[in-house]
Amino acid sequence: MINIETIGLGFIDERGEIKLVLVAPIKTVLLITSKKGSIRGNHYHNRDVHWTYLVSGRMIYYEKHRILEEILVEPGQIVYSNKGVPHAMRFLEDSVFLALTTERRSGESYEKDTIRVKIV
Length: 120
Fold this sequence. Notes:
The protein is mostly beta strands. The protein has one helix spanning 107-113; strands spanning 3-6, 11-13, 16-18, 28-34, 39-45, 50-56, 59-64, 68-73, 77-81, 87-91, 95-101, 114-116. It has one domain: Sandwich (Jelly Rolls). The chain is built from 1 helix and 12 strands. The strands form 3 sheets. The protein has a 5-stranded antiparallel beta sheet with strand order 1-9-6-11-4, with no helix packed on it. It has a 5-stranded antiparallel beta sheet with strand order 8-7-10-5-12. The protein has a two-stranded antiparallel sheet with strand order 2-3. β7 (59-64) and β8 (68-73) form a beta hairpin. The radius of gyration is 15 Å and the shape is globular.
């Protein structure tokens, strides 16, 4: 089952608003842009777990368990990707998201932990 959460209201005063997005042991934060129609993912990780927080745009998030599951993700929602679970994203419009990861995302270490599969 896909784990998605909508980030609710936070603390608001005359200066603005503070929202709690995530409490987790994060090692890397990536700001990623994706063009309408593009697909990202189609892989799983041996060690890394990560969260995808959609800042703007819209996407379909996919996970492959026994069956392929999908869910529409809107701005302000965060999706959890567990290790060992194939996942992918298809962007319905130009989008911006944060990837918050538990492993460092350098080129070589990322590729060693990433297993490519085609689910979308």
